[in-house]
Amino acid sequence: MTAIKHALQRDIFTPNDERLLGIVNVCKAGKKKKNCFLCATVTTERPVQVKVVKVKKSDKGDFYKRQLTWELRDLTEVDAKDASKENPEFDLHFEKVYRWVASSTAEKNSFISCIWKLNQRYLRKKVEFVNVSSQLLEESVPSGESQSVAGGDEDALDDYQELSTREEQDIESMMEMCEYAVSNAEAFAEKLFKELQVLDGANIQSIMASEKQVNILMQLLDEALTEVDTIEGKLSSYEEMLQSVKEQMDQISQSNRLIQISNTNNGKLLNEIQFIVNYMDLSKGQIRALQEGDLTSPKGIEACINASEALLQCMNVALRPGHEKLMAVKQQQQLFVDLRDTFARRLTNHLNNLFVHQGYDQSSTLSQHQTELVLPKHSPLHRDLLRYAKLMDWLKNTHREKYDGLSRTYVDYMSRLYEREIKDFFEIAKIKMAGTSKEAKGKFATLPRKESALKQETESLHGSSGKLTGSTSSLNKLTVQGSNSRRSQSSSLLDMGNMSASDLDVADRTKFDKIFEQVLSELEPLCLAEQDFLSKFFKLQQHMTVAPPLAQVTSPIRKDMVRHMMNKIFQSIETELNSLIALGDKIDSFHSLYMLVKMSHHVWTAENVDPASFLSTTLGNVLVTVKRNFDKCIVSTIRMIRQDNRGLLLNFAKSCCLF
């Protein structure tokens, strides 16, 4: 077993810096006998780790290898099975119970004794030993110690201590000097003892001989102590001086810190003052422009715009915490409020005067254009007012009530102006349409009988097998036919006169078409210009977004505001258009076809510009009326054609009877 222990120490445990303290040859209980070794080891480095290692001999050679390793602190119980009888079986309780059978009871007891020693030294009796005789445990305690092993010398528990490298070298050199050291250990030990006695005697004699030097040394030590006392006194005085200097330096440091804090506070205060001065101050020129600036000249307007923008920035500046409690800031804010109210009042009065003057201005009415079908242009007014667009935006952001009041004033007075102009414009259009109708009637008076053309067109329709063919003029002439007696006139009347009624109708309708087109062409730019002006002047336009094709996308709320203002300004357009359409339809029901074509084209154009605009909505409503009139015309024409066809067939039958 000693050779095996030496081999295991050399091959397995020494390379891992471990020492083998106990070993037992075991096999598992109840199974086929396969011998292995349980080894109790400790590490050579601190902290010491105690382990139980299972080592097995390799099947393919004469060498050993580790198989399992347990920490001793994980061992909870050692069961020797029987304390009174010899029994090689024992159990080790780790995470589970391992049952072993030792090769002999002596090896088992030796291994359990080793485990008990390691437990006493490193684990402080943590492991519980069951069915182990007290005699075995008492024999494990070295003689001369008390029964309480925990209070004894721990070094006595360690039966093996490895020599250090230097100790080994010294012993080897000493043994080389004595050739018989290996063969005769007693002689070698006796020689060492004699040499030790000689050295002790020499040391005593050396001490006795050096008494004089000792006295001298003691005297020197006394002098050194005196010098030390002197130095300590000087050091104490120096320490007091340094303490005074330290206190002075602390005061200076405190003063410097206070000065630094004061400088930092002064810098912060200066930054706050600069912030207030830079962002909450208006120049004298800006204040003068707000209080009494000229709102009629371009330079005065530009100065007012700059001053109002600066005022708005000062009023909207984000104050830092605590600024609003400063008296100067409160006074400056009150000054801004007074300047804002003063300038808003001046601007509102000035623009009100402009709106009222324009609303009562008679120079732009149609009185000077009695013979021309042209609407007055308001581009000069728009150009003059657009100079105030930025001021209106400022007023919208600062005084919403005054902004809304100006919007209502503008709509009120401009609606009166446009109502007069549009009314005069449509009166001229109606006069021109009525004049066209009277002229046509004068031409028709030169014809012998109007019914001749009616009969001619009706006969041409009769040969079409009941289908609606022929010119649109002939269809319309059927709607103005007379009684059945007119249809029975002789066909010889067709040759009378120099001009047919159909040709006269085409000329009149062409002239009506031109008048109606001119009316729509005058209204469309007027509405678009006014809508564009409202968006720019009252800042109702939204930021543009580009989309294929390029389109202006306006927010629904602002579109509604523009449409609402346009409805109030041009509230008479739809009524006048419906009146004009009714007049044209009354003059000639076939005019509805011309009006339908023109209205469809203008509605399509307006929807391409802005589908939700006032112009598009108004023209769309009027287009519905035109379509209804056209439907009525077609229904009436079809009814008249059917009646005429029945009358012609009756006359033809009577003529056949006469012949």
Automatic annotation (TrEMBL):
Disordered as annotated region, ranges: 447-495
Molecular function GO terms recorded: phosphatidylinositol-4,5-bisphosphate binding
InterPro entries: Sec3-PIP2_bind (IPR028258), Sec3_C (IPR048628), Sec3_CC (IPR019160)
Record's subunit section: The exocyst complex is composed of EXOC1, EXOC2, EXOC3, EXOC4, EXOC5, EXOC6, EXOC7 and EXOC8. Interacts with EEF1A1. Interacts with SLC6A9; interaction increases the transporter capacity of SLC6A9 probably by promoting its insertion into the cell membrane.
Originating organism: Gouania willdenowi
Protein name: Exocyst complex component 1
Chain ranges of the Exocyst complex component Sec3 PIP2-binding N-terminal domain: 31-122
Family recorded in the similarity comment: Belongs to the SEC3 family.
Biased composition (Low complexity): 461-475, 483-492
Any one of the GO BP annotations: Golgi to plasma membrane transport
Keywords of this entry: Cell membrane, Coiled coil, Cytoplasm, Exocytosis, Membrane, Phosphoprotein, Protein transport, Transport
Xref: Gene3D superfamilies: 2.30.29.90
